[in-house]
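Whether sequence alone determines local backbone shape is best considered at the level of individual chains. When preparing material for the folding task, we compiled for one chain both its residues and its backbone structure tokens. The sequence in question and its structure tokens are set out directly beneath this paragraph.
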Amino acid sequence: MVGNTGYTPFAGRTVKGWPETVLVRGRPVARNGATVGAPGSGRHIPRTGGWAAEPTGG
């Protein structure tokens, strides 16, 4: 988790899990790993993962 405050209450914690539901404008588009949104209800916005996706070298 990253924020602009300079600290996070999640520092040093290991979290296991995966999202159960993904919402777009309040409507479910994915539930339990399956796509449930109507075709054409969203759009892909290409982008990089930013610095958080960079390899750590470890």
